[in-house]
Design goal:
Blueprint lengths: L1 H11 L4 E7 L3 E8 L24 H11 L2 E7 L5 E8 L7
Antiparallel strand pairs: 1-2, 2-4, 3-4
C-alpha cells in the first residue's frame, strides 16, 4: 500500500485520497481512491515491459505481481480526468484466517 500512496503523491495531482480496508472471512481488501488526473490503464502482463525506464516505471506491474505471488489480485480503474481506484485483494487461507 505504501507504493500506491507514494504514486498518488507523485503522479496523480489529487487533492483527496481515501483508503478503505475490509476484512472478511476469506479475504482482506484495501481500496485506494483518489480524485486526481487519472490515466489510461495499460494492458498489463505479468512480466515487466522491457521498454520502460525513466519515462514510466513498473510500479503497477510489480504491485500486481506481488499480490499474485501471495494469492491475491490487483484491480485498477481509472480514466483521464476522473481519478483512480486501486483495489488490492488478498485471498486468505480459511485454515489460518481468524
Amino acid at each position: 500500500m505504501k507504493k500506491r500512496l507514494n504514486n498518488v503523491l507523485k503522479h496523480s495531482a489529487a487533492s483527496k485520497v481515501k483508503v478503505e480496508m475490509t476484512l472478511a472471512a476469506r479475504e482482506f481488501e484495501v481500496k485506494v481512491v483518489d480524485n486526481g488526473k487519472g490515466f489510461v490503464v495499460p494492458v498489463m502482463s505479468v512480466a515487466p515491459a522491457p521498454t520502460r525506464g525513466r519515462r514510466g516505471g513498473n510500479g503497477l506491474t510489480n504491485m500486481r505481481q506481488r499480490l499474485m505471488d501471495i494469492g491475491g489480485e490487483c484491480l485498477i480503474s481509472s480514466q483521464p480526468g476522473h481519478g483512480t481506484t486501486v483495489t488490492m485483494c488478498i485471498h486468505l487461507n480459511p485454515k489460518t484466517a481468524r
